[in-house]
Amino acid sequence: MLLSLTLLATLASSSAGVPAPTHTAVAASQDDAKKGPTEEQVSAALKAIDVAFGSKEDKPNDRIAAVQSAEAVVHPKVIDAVAKALTDDNLEVRAAALEALSRMRHDDALAALLAFGKKQKKALWKDEDRYVAFLKAVARHEAPSTIGFFSTKLFDHKVQAVASARILSLGRIRTTESIDALMDSMRQANAKRVQGHMKDYRLALVVLTGQDHDLDPERWHKWWRANKKTFEVPEKMAPMEKELYQRWNRFWGGANLYERNPRRDERGQDPEDGK
After folding, report:
1. For the domain bounded by 37-119, which CATH number is listed?
2. Of 51, 69, 103, 245, which residue is 20 to 30 A from 258 by alpha carbon distance?
3. What's the Cα-to-Cα distance from 128 to each of 20, 64, 140, rounded to whole Å?
């Protein structure tokens, strides 16, 4: 644990005890972030993981701390080291690795998640909670390349929570192709199953489009047929009914997954009510 705290201090040392940055300093900091972590940060993260996972003593908290610290160091070598923790003997360590990879915005992190899902398909299939957590981890990358991953055989798992996760995952990928995938699955799947998931479809489509045609599939299809050729998905999620907003944030683990809604005094309305 001491090692992980030291690592955190090393990674944060550039911001400790200094005055508020000037505009020039902020711009330089943003440029540094685009360049990625330094060699020193990569080495420190890898060393922390090596020490925590190489210990002869079984200390899962140390392994968790090392993985969580590594999350901020988005580099292929660090991603590879974190990915190895997906098969750790300890459930909480595996969960920490899954969470870290979900937030490391890099093609290698997404590839590592998809490779893990392919290798562990049978095990994940039997444990719906792990499977849903895995689907959410992939979805947090919001990659258009994963639309088919979520939409193909959307209802093939018997557990309702898995289909819900796939539908809501499509709601995170802000492209018209996501809307197409949702509409296609509503049209092609068994009508009873679709109706049983209309709350999920409605939520995903409201998030993507800013429109709301309630729980009626035909109203959604009619709107999409009329608007498909010209509609552009808004860059950001629009305000919505409070119940929908809260349900979306509960599923994804908090409002931090999107920029906060403006305060009432910033926009003259209640952002959660969307009125």
Report:
1. 1.25.10.10
2. 69
3. 47, 23, 18
